[in-house]
């Protein structure tokens, strides 16, 4: 937090006290309580602050529809198809990759909750149990799983499955097929706030 405060002060020292500062952060494995606290603290120094609802920015590119279009486009360009290459359906590729992270997600969310809640007297065991209950409640939902898992690593797992075809997805190839209506509301809301603030006044 001290580093963020210092950066904001440096910007305003350089550009003037009325400089508009917007900041967007990955959620990572933070618990809801820490996200709420961070938003309040960051808001003391920046005008507009967002902590993503998903693990990191890459997660917003990994919806079923977007990945499916990216695979289809890449396989056409390489002269092959998902069917003839022996790959399973896209939803199975993503689900299989996500399920490899379940234990890691619980462990890391438990560790982050324990770190943040320690000052409140929450024991490590209680923190890990709470993380396990939370993840268990969300894991059966495809979209919730996609929100929880680390996006960069998930993309890497997907590419491991695609490797026999010679096809590889990147953030750029996913962006190329992403449709405006598929961008999540929290990210759209943040960008619209920034746009309204920096748009030239008529």
Write up this protein.
Helix 2 (32-42) links the parallel strand 1 and strand 2 (48-51). A two-stranded parallel ribbon has the order 1-2. The longest helix is centred in the middle third of the chain and has 16 residues, at 102-117. It is mainly alpha-helical and 202 residues long. 62% of the residues lie in helices and 4% in strands. The protein has two domains: 2-53 and 191-198, no CATH class; 58-181, no CATH class. Helix 5 (90-99) crosses helix 9 and helix 6 crosses helix 7 (124-139).
What is this structure's SSE topology?
Elements: H1 2-15, E1 22-25, H2 32-42, E2 48-51, H3 64-77, H4 82-85, H5 90-99, H6 102-117, H7 124-139, H8 142-148, H9 151-162, H10 171-177, H11 185-198
Parallel strand pairs: 1-2
Unreliable residue stretches = none
Q: How does the major sheet shape up?
A: 2 strands, parallel
Helix content: 55-70%
Given the helix and strand composition, which structural class is it? Answer: mainly alpha
The number of distinct structural domains comes to 2
Number of strands: 2
Q: Largest beta sheet: what is the strand line-up?
A: 1-2
Shape: flat
